[in-house]
Structure formats: structure tokens, C-alpha cells
Amino acid sequence: MNIPSPQNRPELHELLAFYMEAGVDEALAEEPVDRFAEMAQAQAAARPASAPEPSPDRRPQAFVENSPAAPPQRGPATAAVPDEAQAQLARQLASRASNLDELREAMAGFDGCNLKFTAKNLVFADGNPNAALMLVGEAPGRDEDLEGLPFVGRSGRLLDRILAAIGLDRNSAYIANVIPWRPPGNRTPTPHETEICRPFIERQIELVNPKVLVNLGGPSAKTLLNTTEGILRLRGNWRAHMTAGGTTIPAMPTLHPAYLLRTPAHKRLAWRDFVEVKMKLRSLS
Ligand code: URA
Questions:
Q1: I need a surface site. Which of 39, 138, 159, 262 has the fewest CB within 10 A?
Q2: The whole model's pTM is what?
């Protein structure tokens, strides 16, 4: 039998190359999943018994979303279309969590962010929740997704060295991300995904109640400091993060370790920022 392979089907080779370039570089499961069949099954289950069977050539609902006569259907194994209702549900769940364990449980049970369905693990946090310093990055990468812990890959190792330079480690700092699920192929999270996840990280900060917050990179700074300014302008200047309960936490926006790995000349800027952080922690202790 002639099994299709990139060798005898050059278009497969091109498709694989396209996937690699788009960041689709690993299988999520051993077996492929037929989402069309799942969707058809869900629609059949939702259809009243008296409703006629759709004709066999009818396109799956996902392709007719824009038809006014056919509102979009939601499949069971993918997140509902991200919308304000999901962000509202996230806000409710987050505000009901009275400690970090409850928050982690609420996030693990939340199906409103589609990133959850392509990620292997929820990446909640690492470090000491009683620490005076909390650092917040953007979103987990591949290594973090596999381990379920933030900043364990190359940029995490650099972050550990930066912390060590100011006399800290993961026992004396708490680390989390704005987005707790890895975006596929490490793509940038969409504004919608960020808005849906925002209540969780805001509540996490509120529950940890650190003396000082460090925003690692532009997305963390913009999301948690409510600004549109770029990180090169923001970094090095103290800002304030306001919690929902009205507490003000001094926040230092700084360069993301992944950026520093690509732009080592800017490590000196990050160094200055962390010296500021060290002095602030000392003044508040
Ligand atoms: N980059 C981030 O922003 N967070 C991680 O956890 C890892 C890399």
C-alpha cells in the first residue's frame, strides 16, 4: 500500500512546513480528533426530537455563523466563543475565591477560555505565596505547559539568575502569568483571551497581597497597570496596581526575560529595575 508521506506527496511537506512556521510543532494527543463529527453530535443532541435531520450535505454550523437565521452553536469540547459573558463569569468565579486554593480550583474548572483546550496544563503559580515580591509574566510557553509551572524554560532560568542577583529565589518570591494556559505555538494571546483571564490574575494578586509587584514585559504591564504605553517607556518607573478591594501595590514594569535573551544589551536596564525593586522591598520591610 502506498501510505501518503511527505516523500511521495510534496504538498504534505509544504503543509508540515506551514504548520512549523505557524508554531504548530507538537501533537496534542496520540489520536486525531474529528471536531466536525463532535459538532454534528452536539447539534444532534441539542435538536428537539421533532426537528428534521439536516441534509447530509449541510455544512457544519461553524461555517454558517454569520447567517442571521442560524445563530452559532457551541460544541462541548471547545470553549464557547469568547465574549463578555465569559469575562463576567471569570469575574464572578475569581471574586468568590477566598484563598489561592479556591482560585486555582475555580480556574481549573473554568471552560470560558479556548486556550485551556489546547494547553496540557493549567500554569497557576510557583514560589512562595507569602513572599513580599510577586512577579507576573505574560503566558506560559512550551516548557511551562509541560510542567504546569511558570518560568521554567530558558527565560525562567534567566529570571532565577536575576532574582539571585537581588538575593531572592523561588522561596522568597511568587511567580504567575496574566494568562494561565499556553497559547498554541506561543502565539500572542488575543485581547479577548486577556480580558477573559484578567479577573483571575487580578484576584491572585489581591489574595497574595505582595508588598511589591513586578510586571515582566509589556503585556503584563499593560494589562495590570491599565496603560497602553510601551514597555521601554514604562520600565524603570514605579506605577501602582489597584486591586478590586482598593489596595494600592507599588509595581515595577521591567523587560521580559525572553526579550533580554534576544537583546542582551538591555540586561543592564533590567538590572537597574531590579535594584529599584530591592531598595523598595528593603524600605517596606
Ligand atoms: N514567559 C512568560 O511570560 N511566562 C512564562 O511562564 C514563561 C515564559
A1: 262
A2: 0.75
